[in-house]
Amino acid sequence: MTLGLKIANVSKTWNPDGPEPVPAVRNLTLDVALGEFVVLLGPSGCGKSSLLYIVAGLEDATEGSVTFDGLEVTEPSPERSLIFQEAALYPWLTVRDNITFGLKIAGQSTKKQDEAAERLLRLVGLVGAGDKRPHELSGGMRQRAALARALAMEPKVLLMDEPFAALDIQTRARMQGHLLNIWETSKASVLLVTHSIEEALALADRVVVFTARPGQIKAEIPITAPRPRDMRSPEMIDLAIQCEALLAEEVEKSFKEQEQEIA
Amino acid sequence: MTQDKRTSVLRRLIKRLEPTLWVFASLSIFVGFWEFAWWRGWANPLLLPPPHIFLANLTDQFRFFDPGGTRAGALATGGSIFSVLGVIAWSSFRVTAGLVLGFVLSLVIGIGIRYFKIFGKLVLPLVTMLAPISPVAWLPVAVFIFGIGNPPAIFLVFIAIFFIMTLATLSQIENVPVHYIQLARIMGCNKRQIYRHVILPSILPELFVTLRMNLFAAWMVVLIAEAVGVGSGLGQVTMMARNTFNASLVFFTMTLIGITGFAFDQALRYVQRKVLWWVGPSSVGGL
Ligand SMILES: Nc1ncnc2c1ncn2[C@@H]1O[C@H](COP(=O)(O)OP(=O)(O)OP(=O)(O)O)[C@@H](O)[C@H]1O
Ligand SMILES: [Mg+2]
Predict the structure, then answer these.
(1) Nearest residue on chain B to A104, judged by CA atoms?
(2) How far apart are CA B243 and CA B224, in angstroms?
């Protein structure tokens, strides 16, 4: 038995029986070790979100399999929590109730829920915001609340789909630091999708660059530099140039393809 | 200093009163034209008596209001403001009962159609086919089934909103953000819990707006039902006024209906704000 996440020969075709099947992911194999931070980088529409949905268990792979700690993934579980670009907090619940939503569903006592809420609010830096409603929070605070909601379930894998893409640059940098702290203490594996090379390099143990649709792995770039990383160091600049070149090729390809589709 | 304070108090007062002032301004324009038309002799006071005439002799009008409605047309027990309020209360009760029934049942049926696939396949075509039939066409049916009295009026109000609200429920369920449901699944919700904890609260606000938009349709229907099949209420008074060519009474009753409908809308908005607190005031809509 292998611990961690194993994505083995996974393909995903949307509308396989429809008039226009869309192959989103093709024959993709990727392992994420326990506690590893992997960042997926790829052109728009190359199937990154599709892959996360499959790993989360929300969608079935057309071919191949996903196993976690040796068990095949067939349905969603709080073990593999997903964080979207928009926080998707429930507007009818307070921030605290959003955070403890999963615990309530799991049937935990209110006392335990309250304790967890206070601990998590402190962890993500939202002390005092528990009784607020989601629309009263800033984008960054909302994303932190979403993170707290995921962490409440003590996930073993955090799947993050462009979690900071909607935030301004300053908030983004703060959130990245925050995420690293939380990741280091929680020991969860992270599979994070981003369009930002800088973000990928700041966070990842390993950057996985995707090809244009259907998504396949084009390159894997391990990063061993200790965090926090200085993006202006020669090593990082080298890596950034490398990533940019890889990505530019695929973006070019995917644009060509789109143009052909339109024509 | 005190000058400043006084102006700020005044400004706040104006701000509080502003909506009400606009209501009065809006009414005044309408009434003004009417009175002007009467003054110039364009409007025949027997057919189109302006407000200062039909509101002049209130006790005279009150005579025609009998909450029981049994001695319709006769100068019966009516005559006080209480009998007028009684008549309004009866109509309001019928509307309220129909609305509550329609809202709850449409929610139950709408959710049921999505929740139980076979039930949905059996019921949805029926709902879609019955939806376009005007409530007025249901009037004879209501009388056949329920006879005379409150039930047929309540039934008609129910019919007026039930089908529309059921279809609205379905479309709202379609529009629940996918992420909400995906998250619920990740958090361990089963199907029942998803409906209970995610779908229901996400569709309620919009359904309440739909209910408010159909409130006026409900009022129109109840008046028709009262005029034809119930024998009491504001609708019955209007009908009697028409039959006796009492134009003043017609307009007086119409005024009452307008005010009551307005009050209903305000009350529903209040309920909406209290119960659905997560919906900002901006999305409540209307006045
Ligand atoms: N639910 C769906 N049904 C049908 N097709 C889908 C669905 N979700 C995604 N697709 C298609 O699959 C392809 C890959 O989409 P996906 O969202 O996985 O890409 P992505 O890499 O996340 O893109 P982006 O970077 O823009 O978020 C796209 O062509 C998209 O249109
Ligand atoms: Mg995506």
Answers:
(1) B187
(2) 15
**pLDDT range class, residue B192, cuts 50, 70, 90:** very high
Q: Is the distance from the beta carbon of residue A110 to the nearest atom of ligand 1 less than 6 Å?
A: no
d(CA A27, CA A171): 36
Residue of A nearest to B177 (CA): A88
Structure-block tokens of residue A235: 């090593």
Q: State what percent of residues in chain B have pLDDT above 90.
A: 45
- The answer to whether the CB of A12 is under 6 A from ligand 1 is no
CA of A14 to the centre of ligand 2 (A): 14
Name the residue among A142, A76, A140, A67 with its Cα closest to residue A105.
Answer: A76
Ranges of chain A whose pLDDT falls below 70: 1-2
Q: 3-class DSSP state for residue B78?
A: coil
Sign of the alpha-carbon dihedral angle for A126, A84, A112, A175: negative
Does ligand 1 come within 6 angstroms of the Cβ of A101? Answer: no
- pTM of the complete model: 0.86
Across A10-33, b (16+ Cβ under 10 Å) vs e yields bbbbeeeeeeeeebbbbebebebe
B233: alpha, beta or left? (left if phi > 0; alpha if psi -120 to 50) = left
Computed over every residue of chain B, the mean pLDDT equals: 87
What's the complex ipTM? 0.92
Q: Is the CB of A254 under 6 A from ligand 1?
A: no
Residue B281 near chain A (CB below 8 Å)? no
Distance CA B205, CA B273 (A): 10
B188, A135: Cβ pair inside 8 Å?
A: no
Three-class HEC string of chain A: CCCCEEEEEEEEEECCCCCCCEEEEEEEEEEECCCCEEEEECCCCCCHHHHHHHHHCCCCCCEEEEEECCEECCCCCCCEEEECCCCCCCCCCCHHHHHCHHHHHCCCCHHHHHHHHHHHHHHCCCCCCCCCCHHHCCHHHHHHHHHHHHHHCCCCEEEEECCCCCCCHHHHHHHHHHHHHHHHHHCCEEEEEECCHHHHHHHCCEEEEECCCCECEEEEEECCCCCCCCCCCHHHHHHHHHHHHHHHHHHHHHHHHHHHHHC
**Residue B3: is its pLDDT beyond 80?**
no
Confidence at residue B73, expressed as pLDDT on a 0 to 100 scale = 45
**Chain A neighbors of B179, CB-CB under 8 A:** 84, 86, 88
Within 10 angstroms of residue B29's Cβ, the number of other Cβ atoms is 10
Which one of A13, A17, A20, A22 would you pick to mutate in the ligand 1 pocket, going by the greatest count of ligand atoms within 8 A of its CB?
A22
Nearest by CB to residue B180, choosing from A82, A90, A106, is A90
User: What integer pLDDT is reported at residue B71 of this predicted model?
Assistant: 46
Cα A84 to middle of ligand 2, angstroms: 9
Distance A58 CA to ligand 2 centre (A): 14
Atom of ligand 1 nearest to the CA of A195: 25
